[in-house]
Design goal:
With 218 residues, the chain is mainly β. Helices cover 2% and strands 52% of the residues. It has 2 domains: 127 residues, Sandwich (Immunoglobulin-like); 85 residues, Immunoglobulin-like (Sandwich), CATH 2.60.40. The chain has a 4-stranded mixed sheet.
Length: 218
């Protein structure tokens, strides 16, 4: 089985609705289920959630119900489960995404390839994430950086400043398949406290790279 998680990042209670299209290889993958993520269940306002499968596309729509209501916080909004057939499957990816605020204005879209890894179709179990996530973000003093890898492999997680200078290396080495959480104390590689500001976390696994913005507060 292959599990894919659709995650809303860096949300500051401005997202009222979202539309996303996840495309998958129907020759190598069979969609088993789509369920709403834990972030939606934790909302104080009722959340409309709908899924529609159209061939090799999974359309996911959600909205916070009520005037002025918006989704609070960041996290999983949907979890998709696939069965892997005998054929070699290409990795699922976000074909389109649109976020809307309480005035129905577009507030950005983000599309990232899903990391799949070589030989994944032959595995009996795998997990893939659409995100590299920090909790909390913005952070002050410390944060947990969460990621997932589909198979055992070498992982490099590095933090850079906005000028591209290496600041810290919270993780480097071999990690097993599945989800991982790495704590970063917001200190550089020399042990000094990192100044408040914007940073970029870059996760590298084999030929795949994922990055995420980190905001550090005083």
């Amino acid at each position: 089985m292959l599990t894919v998680r659709l995650v809303l990042e860096d949300n500051t209670a401005t997202v009222k609705g979202m539309h996303a299209m996840v495309q998958f290889d129907s020759q190598g993958l069979e969609l088993v289920d789509v369920v709403r993520g834990g972030l939606l269940d934790a909302q104080p306002a009722p959340i409309f959630f709908e899924k529609l499968v159209d061939g090799s596309l999974v359309n996911i729509d959600l909205s916070a119900l009520g005037t002025g209501q918006a989704v609070r916080g960041s996290g999983e909004v949907a979890v998709l489960t696939f069965a892997m057939t005998d054929g070699a499957a290409s990795r699922p990816h976000i074909a389109a995404a649109d976020l809307r605020d309480c005035k129905n204005r577009s507030i950005g879209r983000r599309a990232e390839a899903i990391q799949a890894g070589e030989g994944q179709a032959a595995q009996s179990k795998a997990q893939v994430d659409l995100r590299l996530e920090a909790r909390p973000n913005p952070a002050s003093g410390a944060t947990d950086i969460c990621f997932a890898v589909p198979r055992a492999q070498d992982v490099s997680l590095k933090i850079y400043d906005v000028k591209g200078r290496l600041v810290a290396t919270p993780a480097a080495g071999a990690f097993g398949a599945g989800e991982h959480r790495v704590s970063w104390d917001c200190r550089d590689n020399r042990g000094g406290a990192v100044a408040p500001g914007i940073y970029v976390a870059i996760l590298k696994t084999g030929d795949n790279t994922t990055k995420m913005k980190l905001t550090l507060l005083p």
